[in-house]
Amino acid sequence: MVLKKENLVSKQINENLSTKRLDVVLAETFPEFSRSRLKKWLESDLVSVNGKMISKPSHKVFYPSLLELIVPEENLVLDLAEQIDLNIVEANKEFIVVDKLAGMVVHPGAGNKTGTLLNALLNDYPELKKLPRAGIVHRLDKDTSGLMVIARNEKSFQSLSDQISERSVKRIYQAFVVGKIERSGKIDAPIGRHPKNRQKQAVIHSGRDAVSYYKVLQKFGSYSHLQVSLETGRTHQIRVHMNHIGNPLIGDPLYGRRRRFAKNTHQKLREIIESFPRQALHAAELSFIGPSSDKRVSFESNLPADLEELREKLIDQA
Asked: 99 catalytic, yes or no?
């Protein structure tokens, strides 16, 4: 941990914070930093009130007071930076929007220590190593393509994380599923860890609330092209919910194997579906509130080539 005097950040407290605990005053005065980091710095004697170092969270602060932080130069992410091409949709001082390719893992983990989105981001934006998870505030499955937003500073990370928690980030997907769906609908079914298969999620009574909305975009005989929006963001939510109602995603290797074909699917179409190498899911639209502008920003991504080709083949074979 490197400390430099130029890392000093100072702010006067607001009058309405007078007599409140120091940890509360810190969180209100420095919203650009997470509560966990502020707590850590407080415990490390990096916080002063009117020039006096204080480490007690319950210390009462009175107005007027000057708070000072010495912000350490510390790397929160130690993974390797790698030169990997990314499709950057938008990059500014606050955030980065990337259109992730299918096949790319988001975070390093068991079996995927390198070659991930995080490794690529660290190469192009090395400052991200100072942010939790390199600024990544949500994720897509390895074989789901589409839009993701990455925070580029502490304030943006806090803002976007809060928006994810408050469900104000809007995410709309396009999916191709098994079965002829006649009308739009809502799926309200709790999701939790599968009781027998630790790799899977499932609709279970004890799971966390999960709500998805789907709209029919196109029908191809016994297969359907849907638009799916999320009210919640549970692991594998769309894949689990669509399988739950009997319409698994085409190509889903984890949830769709038992019902990968609709009834009366002819051999040519079976071959097309069998050869599709991933779940047919794409994060097509993303919108959120700009961390500094307080205005909603929106981004769109066209269907990638493999899904567009699948759509055309479904049309031809319907």
From this structure: no
